[in-house]
Structures are given as C-alpha cells and as structure tokens.
Prior knowledge:
single chain; TIM Barrel; five-stranded parallel β-sheet; three-stranded parallel β-sheet; 15 helices; 46% helix
Amino acid sequence: MTGIIDWHTHRYPEELAADPNRWAAEHDEHHWAELVTNGPQGWAGRGKMLADMQAAGVAKCVLQGWYWTRQETCHWHNQQHLEWAREDPEHFIPMAIVQPRAGEEAFEQLIWAVDQGCRGIGEIMPTVQGFDMRTDPTWLKICEYAQERHLPITLHVTEPVGHDYPGRVDTPLMDYVWLAQTFPQLPIVLAHWGGGLPFFLLHRQLRKNFKNIYFDTAASPLLYDAKVWQTVMALVGPERILFGSDYPLRIYPRYDKEASFTRLVEEVKAEVSNREELAQIVTGNAKRLLAL
Length: 292
C-alpha cells in the first residue's frame, strides 16, 4: 500500500483561525462561524498539517473548499488552495468551491480555478448556499461541465437522524438521488458516509442508478461506531469508499486536543483487515477519481 490520500480535509489562512467570529462578520459568512466556534474545531497551519500527515502516513491531502455563501469568498478560497498546492504540489490537491447563486460569474471563476489546477469541485452544500439542485441553472451548468471533464463533485450530507448541534442544516437525500440519475457519468462523492444513504442502495430501483456515487468517511468517529466500515463495505463495496478525515476537525475530541490524522488511520487499518480492500479505500479509489 502506498501513502494514504485523505479525500476530505480543509485548510484556512491564519487570519481565520486567529478570530473566526470577527472574520466571519467582516465577510458575511455567519454559518461557517457558527460551526467552527461551537464544536470540536481544530486549526492547523502549513507546518503542523505537514507534520501531522507525516506522523500518520498520509501522503496527500485533497483540500476541500467550504460551502461559503458568497462567491467572493469562494474565489478567494480557491486562490488560497491553488497557492498552497503550488507551494507543496506533492502533498496538496486543490478542489474548487463555487456559489451557484452568483450565476455566470461563479461559472467563469470555476472554469478559471480548474484551468489553474483545481482537480474537482467541493465541498458543496445546497441547503446552506441557498440553491435548488434540481432547478438552479448555474448549478446544472456546473454539473454538465464537471461531467464532461470527469471532475468529481463532493457534497456535504447531513445524516437525517442524529444529534442536533449549532449550525446543523438538513440535506434532502432524494435530491442527491436525483442528481446521480440526471448526471450518470458525473463522479459524485457524498461526504460523511452519505448521511446513511448506502443503506438505501439495497433498494432494487436505486442500486442500478448509483454507479457514479462514492462515499467519503469524513468525521466518521463523531457520527458512527467503528463497525460502520465493514457495514458500508458490505453495502457498496470497498471500491466506492474514500478515506477522509475532515482534518483539522477534532474527530476524537475526548482524546485529541489538537487536530490529528493518526487515530482515524489506526481505525481504518484495524477495521479493514483485507490489504487489497484497505488499499482501495485509503489510496486506490482517490487515485482513480483524480487520474493520478
């Protein structure tokens, strides 16, 4: 097994970590502040993130954007991602974030980000960003563009049954089903184990329409027992699971006071004993989606 690829990480400039509430107020990104100031959020600059990767055997991190509500913030974050990827091209793979409600400006800036080196789109959350996946013309144009270029789109999914927390916003699972059916060649990654959607792939009518759906494992220990690995593998197979941590979120808050990759790497190795299946989950599937 070669080095691990973490499909779902975030990275922010130091100015955000220094005073999240002030930064969010100045940039009108209040939902982000509600989440990062009321939960087990961790922070990491370049040095710490690279050190944590090395300690856990993580070779590359996919940098997912946040589902910002303003296109100006999206474009700014894309610029940051591209700069970090140029600084450490062997370690960071940039994704582009977009706000479809900004219309043609958003689409043009997305094309720019992809042309500059972004390898996909995400993390998107329509119910926070305020657009309808089925009817928003810019979003549909984005999906067509991504499908033509085989660019993966990562979408946040909130589990429909679970604990409440500040900033929680539901995501209608049927919209994701519709998206997969409407764009059958579009690689779609549903974050956080797809909010439980793998179970519904047992439905005969759904299973045949989900060949383009993948599930990442971001924030898994905050949501599910470790048995989730074998359970979802039995439902969808290891070839559709992408290892993701949600770093720098502290996903083991009882044990880790700072962000870390190590415990989740240890968990997946303990729960997935078959080496070929483990290699698919932590490396192979991401390499295939990103054409690495």
